[in-house]
Amino acid sequence: MDFFGRQDIARKNSKILIFYYSIAVLAISSLIGLTLLFIKSWLLKSENIRHLQVDFFDPKLFLMGAGPVLILILLASFFKSLALSKGGGAMVAKSLGGREVDRSTNNHKERVLVNVIEEMSIASGVPVPSIFILDQEDDINAFAAGYTPSDAAIGVTNGCLNILNRDELQGVIAHEFSHILNGDMRLNIRMISVLFGILVLTLIGYFTLRLLPSGSSRRSSSKEGGGGGLAIILVIALAMMIFGFIGQITAKLIKAAVSRQREFLADASAVQFTRNPAGISGALKKIGGGVGSTISHHRAEEASHMFFGSCFKKKFINIFATHPPLEDRIRAIDGTFEGFISSRNQNFSQSHFGQTESMVSSLSGGQSISIENQKQEYGLKVLDQMGQICDEQMYVARGILSSINNSIINAVRDRDGAKVIAGFLLLSSDESTRERQTVIIKDFVGPIFDDLQGHIEEILESPSATKIAIMDLCLPSLRSCSKNEYDQFCNYIDMLILADDQIDLFEFMIQRIIKRHLDKYFGRVKKSNSFRFVSLSNVKKECTVILSAMAGVGSAVKSESLEAFNNGALILEKEGSGNLKMLEPGSCGINEIDKALDKLERCSSTLKKDILVACGTAALSDNHLSCLEIELLRAVADSIGTPIPPFVFRESENGH
Questions:
Q1: Please, are residues 61 and 41 in contact by the beta-carbon 8 Å criterion?
Q2: Which tens digit of pLDDT belongs to each residue from 177-233?
Q3: Same domain, 498 and 580
Q4: Domain presence at residue 343
């Protein structure tokens, strides 16, 4: 199953959750309304006025009971969701006692964790998430949290660092990255919000009972004539607590069923990512071998479905378990598994990484990559890599990172250093323009410019893949800016881009990356319309713009560009009215591309996939991928919310 299919499953699960949640909330509210009707009936009987002909069902009284409860639950869920959305994954991590890792740390174990996560980010094409460690947790566990990859956070326990070796740690991190790529994080946040809304009702009922006078006081009040009112409050509070508790049980059953299904998929994806079943199975075996995965934090229950392993010791009732049995998970990965062994004394160690097969990334250098001899086979493989990750891309990511000067990597791990390096990425090859840009950078960042200016030439000479990776590495550091600092940073980037009064494709791509992953984080983007386009006829103009631009950057020869456009158009025309016509270069410039991408972001997963495959098909029409084509592909994929990793080709015998 590809990235788009997994996204559809995540959306389907979200709809199922919302559907059952709606039923549960309506049922709870209705039961409270019915409780009021029973109280009214009881009062009429107790006052001996049975001769009055009063219907049991009183709509006004029913709504007086059900309405406030319904509003209370929905508001509690809404405000919980709002609070979590403001801080993204970092908010969840901190609420669980997480400490954010300084990516420039000198702690060896933390550096290994940072390196593994950065490699996985580059390989998958998603921004580097914020990294947290749960220092108080000595068992093995981890989680991914956030609404989107742009605000994601990955947290690991102290036990992960102290007990797992690098392969096992990488397997656990790959499992969490699969949740990021599969769209599971948003569903996880919704589950927390849903449970919180119902929990509030239970807590109100509980504390109301606690605040009521004791038994002797109630009897005294009854003698004085106020017992009836206390009795009514007692019954309502008890009903809220009981029905809220029943609602929680129902919600937990739904949570457990959805979570168990996703864990098997995430385990399988982790094996696909790393091609090393021993990594993730080794971590699971150590959990089962005595180390455990227990989380002691008092908020572990509400986030239990987000973790790599079960937060609690084995429960008698498995229907509430958010994770499948460890034995089943291990056997799905390792068919030879026979039983657990003690794991408490294992040491964290570095694993050797060898690469016997020569790998070349189409993003890793040169002006273009030839696939002349294997057009059909490799063309399809490249297109299949969109929105996915495999072990080959892990090797490529590791190669890209190893090609970056350590001083640059250390710089981007600091907020001020990231501002400088992001500016260096936009420096022009034209000397006069570059001089104006360096003045802008120096004025904005201050003395740190002098410390890093020695890397300007190195960055300028780097291939597109390396520059993209450096920008991705800058993002988590830039997330630590205040809102005012970020506004100033955006103005600084705009000044650098417009220093020559024009925007080239690379500058546009960098601008789109920042807009996509940081504007939303800092609340600069208004909530988009939830309506999704499902047919080409809805976005025919926008698809024509993107395909024309892709065909145009691939070749300056009009006949070749037209052939590339038509090859891409064939992919899309099966979805709608068809008859796409290539535009002249003046009608598919940067401004037109920018507007088109804003609309294409609202396409369905199926249509997004077809758009990306069409763009890739157009780019591969001449059996080459140029840097311009790669940059436009990255801009398109990133803008419409599809992570796109470095393209990978095995070297053929003739070296192409």
A1: no
A2: 988 887 788 888 888 887 888 888 888 877 877 776 655 454 554 445 445 567 777
A3: no
A4: no
Do both 415 and 463 map to the same domain? yes
**Tokens describing residue 60:** 């006004």
Least confident of 124-133, 241-250, 576-585: 576-585
Beta bridge partners of residue 48, listed in sequence order: none
DSSP 533: B
CA distance linking residue 552 with residue 560, whole number of Å: 9
**In whole angstroms, what is the distance from residue 429 CA to residue 432 CA?**
9
Give the global pTM.
0.80
Contact 285, 298 (CB under 8 A): no
Q: If we measure between CA atoms, which residue out of 591, 603, 593 comes closest to residue 640?
A: 603
- The answer to whether 532 and 604 have CB atoms below 8 angstroms apart is yes
- In order of 145, 256, 266, 321, 538, the CA distances from 317 in angstroms are 27, 12, 24, 8, 50
Let me know whether 499 and 372 are in one domain: no
* Domain membership of residue 184 as a residue range: 1-338
Interatomic CA distance for residues 323 and 315, integer angstroms: 11
Report yes or no: 466 and 403 within 8 Å, Cβ to Cβ.
yes
246/307 same-domain check: yes
Residue 432 or residue 64, greater confidence: 432
Of 519, 553, 578, the one marking the end of a domain is 519
Positions annotated as catalytic residues are: 176
192 and 329 belong to one structural domain: yes
Q: Per residue in 20-50, pLDDT tens?
A: 778 888 888 888 888 888 877 776 666 655 5
Helix axes 505-514, 590-600, angle to 10 degrees: 30
Domains: count for the chain = 3
